[in-house]
Design a protein that fits this description.
The complex is a heterotrimer of chains A (327), B (307) and C (364). Chain A has 327 residues and is an alpha/beta fold. Chain A is built from 13 helices and 12 strands. Helix content of chain A is 35%, strand content 23%. The mean pLDDT of chain A is 87. By secondary structure, chain C is mainly α. Classes of the chains: A alpha/beta (327), B mainly alpha (307), C mainly alpha (364). Chains B and C meet through helix 1, helix 6, helix 7, helix 8 and helix 10 of B and helix 1, helix 5, helix 6, helix 9 and helix 11 of C.
């Protein structure tokens, strides 16, 4: 396994109390595999990604328990300097909003080239040449002429390509993409996503794709991990999950996608709101919104059950996953 | 860029005219310039009338202003009470005040920015709280009190410095006066840098820089500082004009014969030519400093440059 | 953690950046702060900073941490416009009551107001009764602060000096706030030529160093009342507040609910009174509070230069100024009034700071 996260817990100390953003997340990604982490805002998926990258704001954030194994070594036990050398070189991150994530006062060439000067000790000239090469690779037209331009001079799609180029610069083994296309126009979204998927195949990288967009997931992901209130509630291969979800939350998500063949029917929506992370409900965190909830759901936290008979390596954190699969 | 500079230059013109006219009017309200010319004695009416005609004072104010400005642009700032050319007074006074301002700006840059960066990166820690408190105290105590106290302690009690500055006013003697002049701005630069650093520290591009695996030092100097210092540098630039104008208090405390001293004398003796001349130059300095800051701003922030 | 979706092409301003160099009539922020230094010294700039950060709230699109500022709570998608000022101010008030900085500075100011109204409450002596024989004597029973160079009781004079300082501060601030916010507010609301002219006029006033202007204007005044000094402060201080008010009105005007009110056909006067004023007034109040402190300080500076107030008026500025001649032999005569002055200025700055923090939901 390239990356294995085991029972990760992250808390945020706020003025109003401790927000438990991540409560025991476990997942893994292999080389060349794409794992989609799916969830609503506030489900803890971005925090998980930041914890893995080691860029969590501490304080207020704090990793309270768990392991993050990268090629078998626990990153949480690394010294900061060693951790830094992993970042960018062996695992890289693509952020949602490229405009704010790129430094506004440095040229894109300088920001790309920096990867080579810092991690590889390249000369400025070589770094610049590499930057042009990278921009070519992510298909930015006229790369050589635009290498000195600033982020605000590029369109949204082009900026996101630059973010991708920056992440790919040192050909890391793992890429974490946090909502890489959410800020883009729909037409550009597909182009950027295709580019990312293509490069991932080419370089045989592991990709953790964080998103709330089920459409994106179906196209590129191998596996899905669905997050709710800081835990993984279901994980499975993509086509298995689309065929028959084993958790009522996943089911609700799938049913809320508008479909052309159901035109005219009222769109399904999961009732209620995501839980307040300061006061996560007892028992199953999803129970107040769950159509299948029974008494046991309000008292017992469901473990991540092994789901059998509906695809390989499948898990669900629902006491009634069998029922859910059937109906 | 070129068009931008030209537009800014054109915009300076009405401000320059307005500000100098305002001062011209204020000085005219201030008193009869002729009275000053005859020294302590009362001018006899005939001489007064003659002087009036000589200086064009019988004409309407706007005409006097136009004549004066016309002269100024040929380098003629008129004559002071003792018959000295105002330009001569300026050539003696401005270098002193410029040196004083340079010292003050250096203090702002070196101490202000350093303290701001340190506190901004350690927001909420004891260092931060302590420095913040000190800046508030510095801001609350009027500059002249700070000056008097420093003069008393360093100059008289401990005799580290000479309590008054010699007429040559070399840099060495201007260190403490420069610190006094800078004190309030220094506190402000610290606060501004701190706020700016603390806000930018959470910015997405800083997070990106960390995610790229850059060493902390490089994240701070190359990514965080570069962005955070833009407002600070603009402030310091615009502060230059204010410092030169505000030097009047510091110069009085430390007996420095600079612009403030000459202006003070000019006002005491109701010498219009000196006052208007010096203020005109100060206004020009202020406007040019602002122009330079705007240009610098465009250099530092590419989003302005290409807008 | 909540995630803030950001409009893709929205230009995101650098936080805490003074708005760009000024180009005539482009955008709300361009004129403000182009000349960052006010010439009033750092404290006044501090005030501007406070106002700026408050004002930026509602206008700043996608600033990290979400939309903040006076228009923040409720926001465009929140409750109706009538709810907004009430909830903002009551929220702020709840915050303030728990803030020790606010309580302490508030108590200091309350105390100052009380002793400036009834100084005899804590000082039984006559501030004008001096005995040259006791010149420069130190602390002694009944006269804790000692005597100044003229043999006047420093304690009594310090207590009585509060009245003038507070009067100057309050009157100058009121004048500046009313004149500045009316002119600036109207310019911001109506825009156009009037706005452009006002902006140029404020530029002109900013180009004149304040202390210098005070020296020139006040050197001819022979009146021994406080009014010339107050008048001068209003004359040179209003551009400051007018900029704040203008920027504040412009950014409030751009809020969706104000646009909605306009679309629904609200009249200009109704828009100004009901929708804009309650939301635009916060930065003005904050800046005015801090400015009050700086005016008190400015009065002292002018008195030190010999053009502010004149004896027999009792003021801290005059006392500090006259004590400065005896500073080597009787520093106590300078330290007490200077300390009182500093505490007063500090109290107003901290009060403004606390109010700013309470009104700025971003910092919660």
């Amino acid at each position: 396994m390239l990356l294995e996260v085991r029972d990760l817990h992250v808390e945020f100390r706020t003025r109003d109390g401790v927000a438990r953003a991540v409560n025991g997340v476990t997942f893994g990604v292999d080389e060349g595999e794409t794992l989609a982490v799916l969830g609503e805002s506030g489900s803890g998926k971005s925090v998980t990604a930041q914890a893995v990258m080691g860029i969590l704001d501490t304080p207020p954030g704090r990793i309270t328990a768990g392991e993050i194994l990268f090629r078998g070594q626990d990153l949480l036990k690394f010294r900061e300097e060693d951790r830094r050398k992993v970042r960018g070189a062996q695992m890289a991150m693509i952020f949602q909003d490229a405009l704010s994530s790129l430094n506004p006062v440095l040229s894109v060439g300088a920001q790309l080239g920096e990867m080579f000067t810092v991690h590889r000790g390249a000369s400025r000239k070589d770094a610049r040449a590499k930057a042009v090469e990278l921009m070519d690779r992510v298909r930015i037209p006229g790369a050589a002429a635009r290498v000195g331009d600033y982020p605000h001079q590029f369109s949204g799609g082009m900026r996101q390509r630059i973010m991708i180029a920056m992440a790919l610069a040192l050909e890391p083994a793992l890429i974490i993409a946090d909502e890489p296309t959410t800020a883009l126009d729909v037409t550009v979204q597909a182009q950027v996503m295709d580019l990312l998927a293509e490069l991932q195949r080419e370089l045989h990288m592991g990709l953790v794709l964080i998103t709330h967009d089920l459409g994106v997931v179906a196209d590129v992901a191998d596996r899905i991990a669905v997050m709710y209130a800081g835990t993984i509630v279901e994980s499975a291969l993509v086509h298995d999950i689309y065929k028959a979800p084993a958790h009522p939350y996943t089911k609700g998500l799938l049913e809320s996608i508008p479909r052309l063949d159901q035109k005219g029917r009222e769109l399904y929506a999961i009732k209620g709101l995501p839980p307040n992370l300061l006061h996560i409900p007892p028992g199953c965190a999803f129970n107040p919104r769950c159509p299948m909830a029974r008494d046991v759901c309000r008292t017992d936290v469901p473990p991540l059950y092994e789901v059998t008979g509906a695809g390989p390596d499948r898990r669900s954190a629902c006491h009634f996953w069998r029922e859910c699969l059937d109906g | 860029m070129g068009r931008y500079v030209i537009r800014r230059l054109l915009q300076m013109i009405p401000v320059f005219i307005g500000a100098t006219l305002l001062i011209f009017l204020m000085v005219n309200v201030m008193g009869d310039p002729i009275a000053g010319l005859c020294g302590d004695r009362q001018c006899d009416p005939a001489t007064a009338t003659q002087l009036r005609r000589e200086f064009g004072l019988d004409k309407p104010v706007w005409q006097q202003y136009a004549t004066y400005m016309g002269n100024v642009f040929t380098g003629d700032f008129g004559t002071a009470f003792n018959g000295q050319e105002v330009t001569e007074l300026m050539s003696g006074a401005f270098p002193v005040t410029v040196r004083l301002t340079v010292v003050a700006v250096l203090f702002e840059v070196v101490i202000g920015i350093t303290l701001g960066v340190v506190t901004g990166l350690r927001r909420g820690r004891p260092v931060d709280t302590g420095v913040l408190l000190v800046t508030l105290v510095v801001i609350s105590v009027p500059t002249f009190v700070t000056g008097l106290l420093l003069q008393l302690l360093l100059g008289v009690k401990w005799a580290w410095i000479s309590p008054s500055v010699s007429s040559e006013a070399p840099f060495g003697e201007l260190i403490v006066p420069g610190l006094v002049l800078a004190s309030v701005s220094l506190a402000y630069v610290t606060r501004l840098t701190r706020t700016s650093i603390a806000e930018n520290r959470r910015a997405d591009y800083v997070r990106t820089a960390v995610a790229k695996g850059l060493p902390r030092r490089r994240v701070v100097t190359r990514h965080l500082l570069r962005n955070s210092l833009i407002p600070v540098i603009t402030f310091i630039g615009t502060d230059i004009g204010a410092l030169m104008g505000g030097a009047i208090v510091t110069e009085r405390i430390f007996n420095i014969h600079g612009v403030g001293f000459q202006l003070y004398q000019g006002i005491l003796r109701q010498n219009t030519q000196t006052v208007v001349g010096f203020v005109t130059v100060l206004v020009l300095v202020f406007l040019v400093a602002n122009l330079l800051v705007d240009l610098l701003y465009a250099v530092l922030d590419p989003r302005i440059r290409y807008a | 953690m909540p995630e803030h979706p950001t409009p893709p092409e929205e230009p995101r301003p650098l936080p805490a950046m003074p708005p760009g160099p000024h180009l005539p009539g482009d955008g709300p922020a361009s004129e403000d702060g182009a000349i960052a230094a006010t010439g009033m010294g750092g404290a006044m700039d501090l005030a501007t900073e406070q106002g700026d950060s408050l004002r930026k709230g509602p206008a700043g699109p996608g600033a990290p941490g979400g939309a903040g500022g006076p228009g923040g709570p409720g926001g465009p998608d929140g409750t109706g416009p009538q709810e907004k000022p009430r909830s903002l101010w009551s929220d702020a008030w709840r915050d303030l009551r728990r803030n020790p900085v606010f309580i302490i500075s508030g108590l200091v100011i309350l105390f100052l107001v009380v002793i400036s109204l009834w100084p005899s409450l804590i000082a039984s002596g006559n501030p004008l009764k001096c005995d040259l024989a006791k010149s420069q004597e130190g602390s002694q029973p009944g006269h804790p602060f000692g005597y100044n160079g003229q043999g006047c009781d420093v304690y009594t004079r310090t207590v009585y000096g509060a009245r003038v300082s507070v009067t100057v501060g309050v009157c100058a601030t009121l004048g500046v706030a009313v004149l500045g916010s009316v002119l600036g507010g109207l310019a911001g609301f109506f825009g156009g030529a009037w706005d452009a002219i006002l902006s140029r006029i404020t530029d002109i006033f900013f180009a004149i160093p304040v202390v210098l202007g005070g020296l020139v204007l006040l050197s001819v005044v022979t009146s021994s009342t406080v009014w010339p000094v107050i008048g001068f402060m209003v004359l040179l201080g209003w551009p400051q507040l007018s900029r704040i008010a203008r920027g504040s009105v412009i950014s409030t005007r751009q809020n969706d609910y104000v646009q909605a009110a306009r679309a629904l056909g609200a009249s200009n006067s109704r828009m100004m009174l009901r929708h804009i004023t309650p939301n635009a007034v916060a930065p003005v109040i904050v800046v005015a509070t801090i400015a009050l402190g700086t005016y008190i300080s400015l009065e002292a500076t002018l008195s030190f230069l010999g053009v502010g107030l004149r004896p027999p008026t009792v003021s801290w500025g005059i006392d500090i100024s006259s004590a400065s001649q005896y500073i080597r032999t009787a520093p106590h005569a300078l330290l007490w009034p200077a300390g009182a002055l500093a505490v007063t200025v500090l109290a107003f700055i901290m009060l403004g700071d606390a109010v700013r923090d309470a009104l700025d939901p971003k910092l919660r």
